[in-house]
Protein: diguanylate cyclase
Organism: Amphritea atlantica
Amino acid sequence: MKSNPQSHQSLYRSIRHRYLLGVLIIAVLSTAAYYTLLSSLSDSESTAYIVNLSGRQRMLSQHIALDAHRIYDAMLAGSPASDELTSQMRRNIHDMEAANHKLSSGLLSENWTVDLSTPCREIYFGRMNLYARVDTYLNLAAMLLSSSRHKDAQLYFEQINNSSEQLLTDLNTAVNQYQLEGEQRLNRLENLELLVWITTLIALLLEIVFIFRPMLSIVYASLKAQTEALESLEEIVESRTLKLEISNKKLKDIATHDPLTKLRNRLTLESDIESLIGLSKTHQIHFALCMIDIDHFKHVNDSYGHQAGDYILQELALLLKQETREYDHIYRAGGEEFVLVLNRIDFKEATDKLERIRLAIQQNTFIYGDNIIPLTISAGIYHSNQFVLSKVHDIFRIADTALYAAKHAGRNCIRIAQRENDDISLAKESSTVDN
């Protein structure tokens, strides 16, 4: 039977057309995978940059508030702020202003622009009006820097102080929104990659069935390219996940500190005391726990207002920091109550230190507006040399009992918990003057 040249030609054309179709399909799919990967890399990079930038903006707002405190404290002390401090505050203002412009406009650089989502635009220009508030906050900081009059500086400082906490909360809202949008983008990209992957597999199976062995090498190359693309994407996702974990760690640090005084809160207090108990047992390292309560704090709030009360709490926190060592710890336990943990200190030194703190607070001038607010504290001390206790609850109970005794004795005094014949004795500090 003779071969039919016309049939051979037709078969050749059919195979050629199918082969070209297979090549075309692979070319289209490869291009789609390439641009999908580029899109994934671009979106991931911009998302990470924006999340980090918004987190830095949030951090800068607190740095500026702290710089304002330091500059204003220097003015109260009658000495100008150091050049290093003013330069640092100017840098923080400049960096936060640049971050605010980038985040609100989406113009990350000259050649790098992203579109603001509707929720982000609402945060910056809607009811929350974050862009204008950040701008106002930075203007207040700049005016505080350039102010030479104490009265003007006080006004700017109070406005910064009053707005910083709510601004931090709203900046945190922006960070959370960026993180949420980044996660949504990653989910969409994963779905798109899955779709491309499934489509590619179907096309390869059809090519194996209808184009035979010449397409096997193309199938192998395409599968290999897809595998490499998926592995690369997994590495990117792992990298972004690590950055999100770091951001979450920073948020956890914020959660363990009191937003008003920036002191540690009760969240870590018990675990810290348990660690000290262990060190005291193992290495005979003594410590003292002091319960401190502001006398007649309700009268301050009732007479001068809650903002004056907040000011007193902040000033007292700063004074406690100044009077303690770097390895001592101060906590705001709640309301007007503070806990001071003195590490590596003997009994006499601890009582003397707390008495110095009491006198420093009594002699300090607390000025709020046109008012001079007198302030005293009552305190109770537990020392590990007087009681060998292994339970945090018992330590707090003894210190709190001593504090109650100080209040009962007329306030503005210190009571020391001591053991006498297996009973608790509340001794009066010899240098204390009761009111």
Q: What stands out?
A: The first helix runs from residue 5 to 76. The longest strand covers residues 287-294.
